[in-house]
Amino acid sequence: MDKEMLKGSIDLLLLSLISQRDLYGYEITRLLKQLSDDHYEMSEGTLYPALKRLEKKEWVEAYWSETPSGRRKYYKITDSGMMELEKKQKDWKLIENLVQKSSEGLI
Q1: What is the rounded CA–CA span in Å between residue 103 and residue 101?
Q2: What does the alpha-carbon distance between residue 72 and residue 99 come to, in Å, rounded to a whole number?
Q3: CA distances from residue 34 to 5, 11, 21, 86 in whole angstroms, order as listed
Q4: Which domains does the chain have, with CATH numbers?
Q5: Residue 39 pLDDT level (bands cut at 50, 70, 90)
Q6: What does pTM read for this prediction?
Q7: Where do the H-state alpha helices sit in the chain?
Q8: CB atoms within 10 A of CB 69
């Protein structure tokens, strides 16, 4: 999988996953790997700066929770994060449509 193509989609991927339920970092990387059929594994060096950026934009909030295996930092989407996710999903559909049409040829 071309990681360069994914770079612009990281926020969309993270917001999409976190919108479904609160998640912690390792869980996010595991889900992405599973959903990509093991073709993509997001590194910690990509994940945590991206989550910090989403927090700074107030699209996600972080909180700590005690679990049987220890304390974990969870991320949950905010109302403004949901609005941004909807915008990014619409933009993605436009891009997907453009790629499809351009692949079909000009005639």
Answers
A1: 5
A2: 40
A3: 19, 18, 17, 24
A4: 9-102 (1.10.10.10)
A5: very high
A6: 0.90
A7: 3-7, 10-20, 25-35, 44-56, 79-104
A8: 6
Q: Could you tell me if 19 and 77 are in contact, meaning their C-beta atoms sit under 8 angstroms apart?
A: yes
Q: Which two tokens stand for residue 42?
A: 């997001």
Tokens of 39: 């073709």
Distance between CA atoms of residues 28 and 13, nearest Å: 10
Taking each helix axis as running N to C, give the angle between helix 79-104 and helix 10-20, from 0 to 180 degrees, rounded to the nearest 10: 130
Calpha distance 27→33 (Å, rounded): 10
pLDDT in tens, 72-94: 999 999 999 999 999 999 999 99
